[in-house]
Fold Secretin/TonB short N-terminal domain-containing protein.
Amino acid sequence: MKAVNNPWVQRPVRLILLLGGLIFCLNVQAQEIPLLEKKLSISFERESVESVLKKVEQEAGCRFSYSPSVLDVKQNFSGKFEDRPLREILETVFKGEVQFKTKGNYVILTPRPQEKKEIVISGYVVDEGGQGIRDATIYDPITLKSSTTDQFGYFELEVKNPAEENFQLIVNKKDFSDTLLLEKKSAFQKIRLKAEEIDWQKLGKSVSESAKEVWFWTKSSKGVRNSQNLDSTLSRTIQFTLVPFVGSNRKISGAVVNDFSFNLIGGYSGGTRIAELGGIFNIDRGDVSWVQLAGLYNQVGGQTRGLQLAGLVNMTLDSVKAFQGAGLINFTTESLQGVQMASFINYTHRDVRGVQVSAFLNWGRNVSGFQLGLVNLADSLSGVSFGLLNIVRNGYRTLEFGANEMLPLNLSFRSGTRRFYNFFQAGFRPESLDSPTWSFGYGIGTAPRLGKKTFLNIELSADQVSNGSIEALNLVSKAYLGFEYQMANNFALFVGPTLNWRRYDTSFFGHPELFSYSDPNIFFESENLDRRLGSQLWMGFRAGFRFF
């Protein structure tokens, strides 16, 4: 194939030098992390502090400077640290009695002054996942002295004349719990803030109360007052209802638990033990078990067990051990054990043990099972989420920069878990500013661990490659088998071969040249004259770096 006559893209050496330069710059930037913020994973079992410092020197690549006559380094220490800053390790080893200063590659250790009228409170403010929170405010409510955390979540605050009985610090950060009081006078603190969250259970109950009062003639009726006054201790075998409070249980239906409940339009009861059927809706104050069917809406104030089906919405204000099927939304404010299926949204506020299937969105906090939907969201996942976009808060996310045999500049975002993730990607080749070659695509993959810092990458993807606007099919599908090496906690290199299959419209003559700076061997090529489709197969490569 004819190469584009452009000296920049004709020389792969320059591309390699550019990629190497970027990696070098990123490594230099990574090395600019302060020495005391370097994170280590290390453990000690009844070892002298002197031995501890030597092991830390080897892991952190630093040197400690101290006087053995001043510091007691013969005492024993036991502890285990996973991905913790060097500063925190030293504070723990020396119990806050030593202060640190850095000079180049050296960490200078000296005793913390004892005869002072003020103390320096220092430490980290972190989120629930242990990541440092930047720009949090820490202040003394008495003196109003304050400090702000740095990019690593670290702070220092000098407190004068701290009184043991009323010493307090207050920590504030937008989008986290309002305040956190510290009543422990320790020189080093690790403060964990909890993110603010919507009280979905409170919201659900608010919605349910509104739903119960949708019939204006019952809002202040005897039936409503009876339901508020009576506990659900009455029991009946069967209930027949036209609308709430117009039926066999009359004005106290909200205080009666039924074995069977048949509601022509809709019913309101204290609970159901065996089966409930509603033409439009069912509303139960307490638990429902085994079968609940409604034309539009089911609402359960307690637990749901068994089968729950509704034409539009199922709402349970406690846990669900059931199969929930809804034409629009399943909403549960506690945990789910079972299956949720909806055409729009499945929402479980707490743990999910089972399956969520929807056409749009699935949400669960800690998911053990399977999610299938356009968008899947979870805090943690031990299972598989399969969809166009999978986001796991404590899962796997990477931003990737790389090159392949077609395009020298590629950007990709991965999200999910290492067990299964999906990614969106785009590529660019600057042949000219007027009509550059570019691509966009989507893929899925898995990344099993091979060693402590190495992973295998197995991925399938497809990209549309165009020159200017998209006018015809020019799809390149890739099967990638590569290796990833984690050089640091948040940085990795990757490389590997690809098997490429191109399908393109042979009647269109404006396809871009695929290879401008490489010349792979196309070992298979065919054309379907009837359908005007061509195919090509070749081996290629991918290489670059990732941020986590």
